[in-house]
Specification:
Blueprint (H helix, E strand, L loop, with lengths): L2 E3 L6 E10 L5 H7 L7 E5 L14 H10 L4 E5 L23 E4 L1 H13 L4 E7 L10 E5 L4 E11 L9 H20 L6 E8 L7 H13 L5 E6 L8 E5 L4 H13 L9 E3 L8 H6 L4 E4 L5 H4 L14 H20 L9 H10 L3 H6 L7
Helix pairs in contact: 4-9, 6-9
Length: 376
């Protein structure tokens, strides 16, 4: 059966044990199977399949952590994309090798296995893998245009440069990283300079657990620079934005809503001016958010054919639409220039406001699983 190992899994191992269907691999699923998880190979959906009302999916690394705590000896993730598409990605929350093997199979094979489970009392699974793991040096790439009036106030636009070896990374995250390069090129060619400093960052190690952005935020926190970062705009698989999401306190949402309407006046056919207050995790904005920095992100819909190739061997250049990239630079650039020229920008989150926002977004559980919850 075709499968691919997830990253940060054991180097050499062979496991044979009873296979147990753990559904979506959420806490409720593990509670349902109880002690049957101990010593078993768990079959877990990567996506959320037939979830109960109000249920929120978890990242594969969080599901792997829960499975290990439940006593599983291996995890077989089922991809939810049709066409025998295999998915890779890290199975580790902290970048260290996890103690049990974890691999991904195609949705069609998952269906076949579940049919076997329905027909018989026991199904045995054998999972063998031989991986390599090594330490490498990776560096964030940083450039900036210094502000003319408020150079001490910094607007960051960033996205990750790294991708998985199973894919070429054209959409994840060639779309974002190339857009950042083009934003820098266009803004540097303008006959004027932004009033606030604009800093362009290409992060490394995002796919292994936000390593580059965590390191940069840690450095900024130690130096006090974090207080000068007025907001962070994250471009991760973004293209043809129809508006912007806002995770910021106070008047941030109102400010961005107004700016979106100004941008819409430039091209109402291509830009709808939508806004959202949704907060999410597992991209390079997360360390900034947890440090209290307001984060913004384009509201993009690249289509099922693109998102189905996430972390897969079909993530290739033919998925990239030039117009989507052009609009990415046009509308994100317009937002950055408008933010740079604003009379003043709202403040950072206070710790209490941030805590409330994260709890309201249902993110306390995932952050606790990952060891990133900032409070006791």
């Amino acid at each position: 059966m075709a499968c691919v190992a997830l990253a940060n899994t054991p180097l050499d191992c062979a496991v044979e044990a009873t296979l147990v269907d753990a559904g979506n691999g959420l806490p409720a699923d593990l509670e349902r199977i109880g002690d049957r998880a101990k010593g078993a190979v768990l079959l877990v959906n990567i996506g959320l399949v037939a979830g109960t009302e109000g249920s929120v999916n978890l990242h594969r690394s969080e599901k792997a952590s829960l499975a290990q705590k439940a006593g599983a000896v291996a995890i077989v993730f089922v991809n939810q994309v049709e066409g025998h598409v295999l998915l890779t990605g890290t199975a580790s929350i902290d970048g260290k090798l996890i103690s049990v093997p974890a691999a991904c199979i195609a949705t069609e094979d998952g269906v076949d296995i579940r049919a076997q489970l329905a027909d018989r009392q026991y199904v045995t699974a054998r999972l063998e893998m031989h991986n390599t793991s090594d330490r490498v040096v990776a560096r964030n790439i940083i450039a900036e245009l210094r502000g003319t009036e408020h150079p001490e106030e910094v607007i960051i636009v960033g996205g990750h440069l790294d991708s998985w070896d199973l894919a070429t990374g054209a959409t994840d995250n060639g779309l974002g990283s190339f857009s950042i390069l083009d934003l820098a090129r266009v803004m540097a060619s303008m006959p004027f300079r932004p009033q606030r400093t604009v800093r362009f960052v290409l992060f490394m190690g995002e796919e292994q657990g936000l390593l580059g952005s965590r390191d940069l935020v840690s450095s900024y926190t130690l130096s006090g620079e974090i207080q000068k970062i007025r907001c962070m705009i994250n471009l991760d698989m973004s293209g043809n934005p129809q508006g912007f999401g806002v995770a910021g306190p106070g008047n941030w949402h109102d400010l961005v809503t107004g700016l979106c309407q100004e941008i819409r006046s430039l091209d109402s056919a291509s830009f709808k001016g939508r806004t959202s207050s949704d907060v999410w995790l597992h991209s390079d904005h997360q360390p900034f958010l947890l440090a209290g920095v307001p984060v913004l992100y384009p509201l993009s819909d690249l289509g099922k054919h693109v998102y189905g190739c996430y972390h897969s061997n079909c993530d290739d250049i033919q998925l990239v639409e030039p117009k989507a990239m052009t609009n990415n630079v046009r509308f994100v650039g317009a937002l950055m220039i408008a933010l740079s020229a604003a009379n003043e920008l709202p403040e950072h989150f206070t710790p209490e406001n941030l805590k409330t926002r994260l709890i309201d977004a249902g993110l306390e559980g995932p952050l606790r699983i990952g060891g990133d919850w900032p409070w006791n």
